[in-house]
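User: Second chain of the day. Same drill as before.
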Amino acid sequence: MEENMDESQSQKGCKECCERCVGSLPWASLIATILLYMGVALFCGCGHEALTGTVTILQNYFEVIRAPGETLDVFTIIDILKYIIYGLAAGFFVFGVLLLVEGFFTTGAIRDLYGEFKITACGRCLTAFLMFLAYLFFLVWLGVTAFTSLPVFMYFNVWTMCQNTSLVEGANLCLDLRQFGAVTISEERKVCTGSEKFFKMCESNELDLTFHLFVCALAGAGAAVIAMVHFLMALAANWGYLKDASRMQKYEDIKSKEEQELHDIHSTRSKERLNAYT
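Assistant: Same format as last time:
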Protein backbone atom coordinates (compact mmCIF):
# COMPACT_ATOMS: atom_id res chain seq x y z
CA MET A 1 0.00 0.00 0.00
CA GLU A 2 2.76 2.40 0.95
CA GLU A 3 4.68 1.47 -2.23
CA ASN A 4 1.62 2.31 -4.37
CA MET A 5 1.25 5.66 -2.59
CA ASP A 6 4.92 6.46 -3.10
CA GLU A 7 4.68 5.50 -6.79
CA SER A 8 1.58 7.67 -7.31
CA GLN A 9 3.25 10.61 -5.58
CA SER A 10 6.35 10.14 -7.73
CA GLN A 11 4.26 10.10 -10.91
CA LYS A 12 2.38 13.18 -9.74
CA GLY A 13 5.66 14.97 -9.03
CA CYS A 14 7.04 14.12 -12.49
CA LYS A 15 3.80 15.27 -14.10
CA GLU A 16 3.87 18.59 -12.26
CA CYS A 17 7.52 19.06 -13.18
CA CYS A 18 6.81 18.42 -16.86
CA GLU A 19 3.84 20.80 -16.81
CA ARG A 20 5.97 23.45 -15.15
CA CYS A 21 8.74 23.03 -17.73
CA VAL A 22 6.34 23.10 -20.68
CA GLY A 23 4.49 26.09 -19.25
CA SER A 24 7.70 28.07 -18.76
CA LEU A 25 8.78 27.72 -22.41
CA PRO A 26 8.41 30.86 -24.57
CA TRP A 27 6.51 29.13 -27.35
CA ALA A 28 6.01 32.26 -29.46
CA SER A 29 9.74 33.09 -29.44
CA LEU A 30 10.65 29.44 -29.97
CA ILE A 31 8.42 29.07 -33.05
CA ALA A 32 9.67 32.40 -34.42
CA THR A 33 13.31 31.33 -33.90
CA ILE A 34 12.78 28.03 -35.72
CA LEU A 35 11.04 29.82 -38.59
CA LEU A 36 13.82 32.43 -38.74
CA TYR A 37 16.57 29.80 -38.86
CA MET A 38 14.72 27.84 -41.55
CA GLY A 39 14.18 30.96 -43.65
CA VAL A 40 17.74 32.23 -43.28
CA ALA A 41 19.20 28.78 -44.01
CA LEU A 42 17.01 28.39 -47.10
CA PHE A 43 17.81 31.87 -48.37
CA CYS A 44 21.57 31.68 -47.74
CA GLY A 45 22.06 28.14 -49.03
CA CYS A 46 19.89 28.41 -52.13
CA GLY A 47 20.99 31.99 -52.82
CA HIS A 48 24.67 31.06 -52.69
CA GLU A 49 24.22 28.12 -55.07
CA ALA A 50 22.00 30.17 -57.38
CA LEU A 51 24.71 32.84 -57.66
CA THR A 52 27.27 30.12 -58.45
CA GLY A 53 24.96 28.79 -61.17
CA THR A 54 24.58 32.31 -62.57
CA VAL A 55 28.36 32.59 -62.91
CA THR A 56 28.42 29.27 -64.79
CA ILE A 57 25.68 30.40 -67.19
CA LEU A 58 27.40 33.72 -67.88
CA GLN A 59 30.73 32.07 -68.60
CA ASN A 60 29.52 29.09 -70.64
CA TYR A 61 26.70 30.55 -72.74
CA PHE A 62 27.22 34.30 -72.80
CA GLU A 63 31.02 34.10 -72.83
CA VAL A 64 31.42 36.79 -70.20
CA ILE A 65 35.01 37.04 -68.97
CA ARG A 66 36.05 38.24 -65.54
CA ALA A 67 37.69 41.65 -65.78
CA PRO A 68 41.35 41.81 -64.72
CA GLY A 69 42.39 43.68 -61.60
CA GLU A 70 39.92 45.29 -59.23
CA THR A 71 37.42 46.35 -61.89
CA LEU A 72 33.82 46.26 -60.69
CA ASP A 73 32.07 43.82 -63.01
CA VAL A 74 29.20 41.36 -62.65
CA PHE A 75 31.45 38.68 -61.14
CA THR A 76 32.73 41.06 -58.49
CA ILE A 77 29.16 42.02 -57.62
CA ILE A 78 28.25 38.34 -57.30
CA ASP A 79 31.22 37.79 -54.97
CA ILE A 80 30.06 40.75 -52.85
CA LEU A 81 26.57 39.27 -52.67
CA LYS A 82 28.04 35.96 -51.48
CA TYR A 83 29.90 37.75 -48.67
CA ILE A 84 26.65 39.50 -47.73
CA ILE A 85 25.00 36.08 -47.52
CA TYR A 86 27.76 34.86 -45.19
CA GLY A 87 27.22 37.91 -42.97
CA LEU A 88 23.45 37.41 -42.91
CA ALA A 89 23.83 33.77 -41.88
CA ALA A 90 26.20 34.57 -39.00
CA GLY A 91 24.42 37.73 -37.84
CA PHE A 92 20.92 36.31 -37.73
CA PHE A 93 22.11 33.15 -35.99
CA VAL A 94 23.34 35.33 -33.11
CA PHE A 95 20.24 37.55 -33.27
CA GLY A 96 17.93 34.53 -33.08
CA VAL A 97 19.78 33.24 -30.01
CA LEU A 98 19.46 36.65 -28.32
CA LEU A 99 15.73 36.84 -28.97
CA LEU A 100 15.21 33.28 -27.74
CA VAL A 101 17.17 33.95 -24.54
CA GLU A 102 15.18 37.14 -23.99
CA GLY A 103 11.99 35.13 -24.38
CA PHE A 104 13.13 32.61 -21.76
CA PHE A 105 14.10 35.31 -19.25
CA THR A 106 10.93 37.30 -19.84
CA THR A 107 8.79 34.21 -19.34
CA GLY A 108 10.70 33.42 -16.15
CA ALA A 109 10.23 36.98 -14.93
CA ILE A 110 6.48 36.76 -15.41
CA ARG A 111 6.12 33.28 -13.92
CA ASP A 112 8.35 33.96 -10.92
CA LEU A 113 7.54 37.60 -10.30
CA TYR A 114 8.51 37.47 -6.65
CA GLY A 115 11.24 34.90 -6.94
CA GLU A 116 14.96 35.37 -7.39
CA PHE A 117 14.62 36.97 -10.83
CA LYS A 118 13.22 40.49 -10.43
CA ILE A 119 11.87 42.69 -13.20
CA THR A 120 14.16 45.68 -13.62
CA ALA A 121 14.20 48.78 -15.79
CA CYS A 122 17.23 47.34 -17.59
CA GLY A 123 15.22 44.29 -18.63
CA ARG A 124 12.42 46.43 -20.00
CA CYS A 125 14.88 48.64 -21.88
CA LEU A 126 16.53 45.54 -23.35
CA THR A 127 13.17 44.25 -24.56
CA ALA A 128 12.37 47.64 -26.12
CA PHE A 129 15.81 47.71 -27.82
CA LEU A 130 15.34 44.19 -29.23
CA MET A 131 11.90 45.22 -30.45
CA PHE A 132 13.48 48.16 -32.30
CA LEU A 133 16.09 45.84 -33.85
CA ALA A 134 13.40 43.35 -34.86
CA TYR A 135 11.46 46.10 -36.61
CA LEU A 136 14.63 47.30 -38.35
CA PHE A 137 15.52 43.79 -39.51
CA PHE A 138 11.93 43.31 -40.63
CA LEU A 139 12.41 46.23 -43.03
CA VAL A 140 15.77 44.77 -44.11
CA TRP A 141 14.21 41.42 -44.96
CA LEU A 142 11.43 43.16 -46.86
CA GLY A 143 14.12 44.80 -49.00
CA VAL A 144 15.93 41.47 -49.40
CA THR A 145 12.68 39.82 -50.51
CA ALA A 146 12.04 42.56 -53.07
CA PHE A 147 15.63 42.32 -54.33
CA THR A 148 15.45 38.51 -54.61
CA SER A 149 12.29 38.75 -56.70
CA LEU A 150 14.25 40.48 -59.51
CA PRO A 151 16.41 37.47 -60.53
CA VAL A 152 13.36 35.24 -60.10
CA PHE A 153 11.46 37.39 -62.61
CA MET A 154 14.41 37.45 -65.07
CA TYR A 155 15.01 33.70 -64.87
CA PHE A 156 11.29 33.05 -65.18
CA ASN A 157 11.25 34.91 -68.53
CA VAL A 158 14.24 32.94 -69.80
CA TRP A 159 12.83 29.65 -68.51
CA THR A 160 9.48 30.41 -70.17
CA MET A 161 11.20 31.08 -73.48
CA CYS A 162 12.99 27.75 -73.21
CA GLN A 163 9.79 25.91 -72.37
CA ASN A 164 8.04 27.42 -75.41
CA THR A 165 10.82 27.04 -77.99
CA SER A 166 8.35 25.73 -80.55
CA LEU A 167 6.23 28.88 -80.25
CA VAL A 168 9.16 31.28 -80.59
CA GLU A 169 10.87 29.30 -83.33
CA GLY A 170 9.95 31.74 -86.06
CA ALA A 171 10.54 34.84 -83.93
CA ASN A 172 13.93 36.47 -83.54
CA LEU A 173 14.17 37.02 -79.76
CA CYS A 174 17.46 37.73 -78.04
CA LEU A 175 18.65 37.78 -74.43
CA ASP A 176 20.98 40.77 -74.23
CA LEU A 177 22.93 41.19 -70.98
CA ARG A 178 23.17 44.92 -71.59
CA GLN A 179 19.46 45.19 -70.81
CA PHE A 180 20.10 43.83 -67.32
CA GLY A 181 23.21 45.91 -66.66
CA ALA A 182 25.43 42.83 -66.43
CA VAL A 183 27.89 44.19 -68.99
CA THR A 184 28.76 47.62 -70.30
CA ILE A 185 27.03 49.17 -73.30
CA SER A 186 30.07 48.68 -75.51
CA GLU A 187 30.08 44.92 -74.94
CA GLU A 188 27.67 42.78 -76.90
CA ARG A 189 26.81 39.62 -75.01
CA LYS A 190 23.54 38.12 -76.19
CA VAL A 191 21.99 34.78 -77.05
CA CYS A 192 19.19 34.60 -79.62
CA THR A 193 16.51 32.01 -80.14
CA GLY A 194 17.36 29.49 -82.82
CA SER A 195 21.08 29.62 -82.07
CA GLU A 196 23.04 26.63 -80.85
CA LYS A 197 23.94 28.35 -77.56
CA PHE A 198 20.30 29.02 -76.84
CA PHE A 199 19.33 25.37 -77.27
CA LYS A 200 22.31 24.19 -75.21
CA MET A 201 21.42 26.60 -72.42
CA CYS A 202 17.79 25.46 -72.42
CA GLU A 203 18.75 21.79 -72.38
CA SER A 204 21.32 22.21 -69.61
CA ASN A 205 20.60 21.64 -65.94
CA GLU A 206 22.16 24.96 -64.88
CA LEU A 207 19.26 27.11 -66.04
CA ASP A 208 16.49 25.02 -64.52
CA LEU A 209 18.37 24.45 -61.26
CA THR A 210 19.40 28.09 -60.87
CA PHE A 211 15.86 29.30 -61.50
CA HIS A 212 14.37 26.98 -58.86
CA LEU A 213 17.15 27.82 -56.41
CA PHE A 214 16.28 31.50 -56.70
CA VAL A 215 12.61 30.61 -56.10
CA CYS A 216 13.61 28.72 -52.92
CA ALA A 217 15.76 31.66 -51.83
CA LEU A 218 12.75 33.96 -52.31
CA ALA A 219 10.64 31.60 -50.20
CA GLY A 220 13.32 31.64 -47.49
CA ALA A 221 13.35 35.44 -47.46
CA GLY A 222 9.57 35.44 -47.12
CA ALA A 223 9.80 32.99 -44.20
CA ALA A 224 12.32 35.30 -42.53
CA VAL A 225 9.90 38.22 -42.93
CA ILE A 226 7.12 36.20 -41.27
CA ALA A 227 9.53 35.21 -38.47
CA MET A 228 10.40 38.86 -37.81
CA VAL A 229 6.68 39.68 -37.60
CA HIS A 230 6.30 36.86 -35.03
CA PHE A 231 9.23 38.26 -33.06
CA LEU A 232 7.72 41.75 -33.13
CA MET A 233 4.41 40.46 -31.75
CA ALA A 234 6.15 38.39 -29.05
CA LEU A 235 8.44 41.24 -28.00
CA ALA A 236 5.58 43.75 -27.92
CA ALA A 237 3.54 41.38 -25.75
CA ASN A 238 6.51 40.72 -23.45
CA TRP A 239 7.18 44.43 -23.09
CA GLY A 240 3.56 45.09 -22.19
CA TYR A 241 3.54 42.23 -19.67
CA LEU A 242 6.77 43.44 -18.11
CA LYS A 243 5.44 46.97 -17.82
CA ASP A 244 2.24 45.84 -16.11
CA ALA A 245 4.12 43.39 -13.89
CA SER A 246 6.56 46.11 -12.88
CA ARG A 247 3.68 48.36 -11.82
CA MET A 248 2.11 45.51 -9.88
CA GLN A 249 5.43 44.82 -8.21
CA LYS A 250 5.78 48.46 -7.12
CA TYR A 251 2.21 48.41 -5.79
CA GLU A 252 2.86 45.26 -3.76
CA ASP A 253 6.11 46.73 -2.39
CA ILE A 254 4.30 49.92 -1.29
CA LYS A 255 1.47 47.88 0.18
CA SER A 256 3.81 45.66 2.18
CA LYS A 257 5.74 48.71 3.38
CA GLU A 258 2.54 50.40 4.59
CA GLU A 259 1.43 47.21 6.32
CA GLN A 260 4.78 46.98 8.05
CA GLU A 261 4.50 50.61 9.18
CA LEU A 262 0.99 49.99 10.55
CA HIS A 263 2.24 46.91 12.34
CA ASP A 264 5.09 48.93 13.89
CA ILE A 265 2.66 51.65 14.99
CA HIS A 266 0.35 49.10 16.64
CA SER A 267 3.30 47.45 18.35
CA THR A 268 4.55 50.79 19.68
CA ARG A 269 1.11 51.72 21.00
CA SER A 270 0.72 48.35 22.65
CA LYS A 271 4.04 48.78 24.43
CA GLU A 272 3.09 52.28 25.53
CA ARG A 273 -0.20 51.06 26.96
CA LEU A 274 1.56 48.21 28.72
CA ASN A 275 4.10 50.58 30.24
CA ALA A 276 1.36 52.98 31.33
CA TYR A 277 -0.56 50.14 32.97
CA THR A 278 2.46 48.90 34.85
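The longest strand covers residues 174-176.

User: Great, on to the next one.
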